[in-house]
Fold:
Amino acid sequence: MAGAGLQFINLLGLPPSVHWVMLYNLGCYAGGTVLRITKDSAENNPGARVLTVCVETTVVTFQAPSDEDHVYLIGNAFFGDGAAAMIVGATAGTTEWPIFEIVFASQEFVPGTKGALNGRYREMGLTMQLSEKVPAVIAVPILTSRAQARLVGSHARAR
Structure:
């Protein structure tokens, strides 16, 4: 059975020799991972254009909200289906007008997050439980990455 990636390549009419990477079941981790891989691929292949497509489907975790348990309502609002695409290159060609620049992409494991997000397969499907500690646990790593990105960005603009 052909995966979504192969079907997408065929739909776009790309050659069988096209380089491609499929990442599955990364959830919230996918965005940063895809940006890092895209940036690395573009920078390490001069002249290349990297098509990046992200699709998130959360239908397996969708649960009907109930008056007794508002957790599912919050989860359905917080995590939703979505898709995005972009074309990335490390150097602009003569007919291209870049809109954005990826100056920094990182990912890290955050210590102390065991149990912050739990998923369990049950009779009703996949259920997710998000700890109320998540905002506090991820705040410092986000602020640290933001500071690193600003530093890298200021060096990149100075060149």
